[in-house]
Amino acid sequence: MKFIEYQEKIESLIKLAKHSNTGTPKELAKRLKVSERTVYRLIQNLNDQNIEINFCRKVKSYVLKN
C-alpha cells in the first residue's frame, strides 16, 4: 500500500471512530477495502501515536477517546 493510500485509510478510520461508526473489525476491513489484520495494524499505529482508539462492545464500534 502506498503512503498516500495508507494516510487516506487512517483519516477514514479516525473520521468513522469519531462518530462511533466503524462497526466490527471485519466490517471496518470491508469498508476500508483492506484485510482485517491491516485494520489491527492501523489501530496499533494510531495508538502508538497517542491517538487512543478502542473497541466498544456496547456500540460494536471503535471509538476515539478524547
Can you put this structure into words, describing what you see?
- With 66 residues, this protein is of the alpha+beta class.
- The chain has a single domain (3-64), classed as Winged helix-like DNA-binding domain superfamily/Winged helix DNA-binding domain (Arc Repressor Mutant, subunit A).
- It has three helices and two strands; from the N terminus they run H-H-H-E-E.
- A two-stranded antiparallel sheet has the order 1-2.
- Helix 2 packs across helix 3.
- It starts with a helix and ends with a strand.
Query: What is the overall pLDDT average?
Result: 94
| Overall structural domain count | 1
**At the third CATH level, what is the topology name?**
Arc Repressor Mutant, subunit A
C-alpha geometry = globular
User: What are the segments in which pLDDT stays under 50 over at least 5 consecutive residues?
Assistant: none
**Fourth-level CATH superfamily:** Winged helix-like DNA-binding domain superfamily/Winged helix DNA-binding domain
- Strand order in the largest sheet: 1-2
Beta-strand content bin: 5-15%
- Helix fraction, binned, reads 55-70%
Structural class: alpha+beta
Q: What's the order of the H and E elements?
A: HHHEE
Rg, alpha carbons: 11 Å
CATH class bucket: Mainly Alpha
CATH architecture: Orthogonal Bundle
Q: How far do the termini sit from each other?
A: 29 Å
Counting DSSP E segments of at least 2 residues, the number of strands comes to: 2
Largest sheet: 2 strands, antiparallel
